[in-house]
TrEMBL record:
Segments forming domain Histidine kinase: 229-449
Protein name: histidine kinase
Entry-linked InterPro entries: BphY/WalK/GraS-like (IPR050351), HATPase_C_sf (IPR036890), HATPase_dom (IPR003594), His_kinase_dom (IPR005467), PAS (IPR000014), PAS-like_dom_sf (IPR035965), Sig_transdc_His_kin-like_C (IPR004358)
Reactions mediated catalytically: ATP + protein L-histidine = ADP + protein N-phospho-L-histidine
Length: 449
């Protein structure tokens, strides 16, 4: 309605200007100088009023958008005006202004709500731009770092120089663990980064969490598992010793008195000898068990060197070939061909032999059993070596137990191999992870940090 009235006003004024121009032309032809002067004056006045009419509308709309840009919603346009088109336009602008104000207030409420959630969150949250300027840091983060206010990541050097060295090259989708030490305590921090875009600017969102309690719980859980396995193994060894010792004692003591040698039968002496042999054997097993525990605790520091991935896998291929069954296939692949690892070759070779041997044992009874070892680089640029098989896999209830020292599902073996392998990888600054889908595939991945 407002735009139609505006058009009518413009058309009417243009028609008046056109008629005035025609009058001016006739006056010039017929030499009506008085009429010509009046027409010129009237034409100029009409042009002036037309421009003023159009500019008044433009200025009104410009004021409106300037006020919206500056978040000034107090601007009101008079609705009691003589020109109907202006009246309708002013009403429309006021309605739009009210609507935008309502939306703006709703957004402010939501923003305050989200801000309060971020402030009360139990994890530290921080965003910073490519130049290192911190745009947001919640109170939890400032409390974790014991530093406020945080305006630039360079300030982290005042908290801990190594913490700044972690943040400075921090890339999106990275995870880091950092132990922060201050005069009060040691805090184990987990750092995770995510890229975000705000107003066309690239920012990095970093979530910082104190995982000290979680680590304590995991450590306690690991000790419980270890003690359970140790108790099981030791009891299996000690129980026969105690039983046999009790039987032998009964041969030589009755009613609290020592039995004379002349009253001993030859079978009792023979059984005593056999019992002592069993005790010796069980004691030897217990000594081997303790020795394997010592080997887990005394893993030497890696003597690292740059080793070609292709050559390393070829060596594993030769060593595993002697263990192959006719129905089992063993293959290797290194991509890229010039892939190199900075490792202790002897230690990593032993880890791969242990994993390869376990994989071959698992596919012995599987039709078309396959074991594949692959070295490569993942999408995040992390080097890895995988040992994959299509054996029966690991049951879900045991997946968390396999790295516990001395835990084994085999009838033979100490159960030290996987835990020792993981220890070697940790000393290389990496990790050993497992993924298993029963009766489909099992993958052990060596990750080199």
């Amino acid at each position: 309605m407002a735009s139609r009235n505006f058009y009518f006003q413009v058309i009417f004024r243009v028609l008046i200007i056109a008629l005035t121009a025609m009058t001016l032309a006739f006056s010039f032809v017929w030499e009506w100088y008085f009429a010509m002067a009046f027409a010129v004056f009237f034409l100029g006045a009409q042009l002036h009023f037309l421009i003023k009419f159009i500019n008044s509308t433009n200025r009104k709309i410009a004021y409106f958008f300037d006020a919206i840009r500056n978040e000034d919603f107090t601007l009101r346009f008079p609705e009691r005006v003589s020109i109907e088109s202006f009246k309708e336009l002013n009403k429309s602008l006021n309605r739009v202004n009210d609507l935008i104000q309502e939306v703006h207030l709703q957004l402010q409420v939501k923003e305050q709500y989200y801000q309060e959630i971020l402030k009360q969150a139990s994890i530290g949250i921080m965003t910073f731009n490519e130049k290192g300027h911190i745009l947001f840091a919640n109170p939890t983060l400032e409390k974790l770092l014991n530093y406020t206010p945080l305006n630039h990541i360079k300030q982290l050097a005042q908290v801990d120089e190594k913490l700044y060295e972690v943040f400075q090259p921090f890339k999106p989708f990275k995870r880091k663990l950092f132990q922060l030490t201050n005069e009060r305590e040691q805090i184990q921090l987990s750092l995770k980064s995510t890229p975000i875009s705000l107003d066309g600017k690239s920012l990095l969102l970093v979530v910082v969490q104190d995982i000290h309690q979680e680590l304590d719980e995991k450590e306690t859980e690991s000790w419980v598992r270890l003690i359970r396995v140790l108790t099981h193994e030791i009891m299996n060894t000690i129980t026969p010793i105690a039983s046999i010792s009790d039987s032998i004692i009964k041969y030589y003591r009755k009613n609290g008195e020592i039995v004379p040698l002349k009253n001993l039968e030859e079978s009792q002496v023979a059984n005593t000898l056999k019992g002592l042999e069993v005790i010796k054997e069980q004691g030897g097993d217990l000594m081997d068990f303790v020795q394997s525990y010592r080997s887990l605790l005394n893993v030497p520091e890696p003597n690292r060197a740059i080793i070609g991935g292709g050559g390393l896998l070829e060596k594993i291929n030769v060593l595993m070939s002697a263990r192959l069954e006719e129905s089992t296939a063993f293959s290797i692949n290194c991509s890229p061909k010039d892939l190199e690892f900075f490792i202790d070759e002897k230690q990593i070779t032993q880890v791969l032999i242990n994993l390869g041997k376990n994989a071959l044992q698992s596919v012995v009874k599987v039709e078309n059993g396959k074991v594949h070892v692959e070295a490569g680089i993942d999408k995040e640029g992390v080097k890895f070596i995988e040992v994959r098989d299509n054996g029966p896999g690991i049951p879900p209830e045991l997946i968390d137990e396999i790295f516990v020292p001395f835990f084994t599902t085999k009838n033979e073996g100490t159960g030290i191999g996987l835990s020792l392998s993981k220890r070697v990888m940790q000393m290389h600054g990496g990790n050993l992870k497992v993924h298993s889908v029963p009766n489909r595939e099992t993958v052990f991945r060596l990750i080199f940090g």
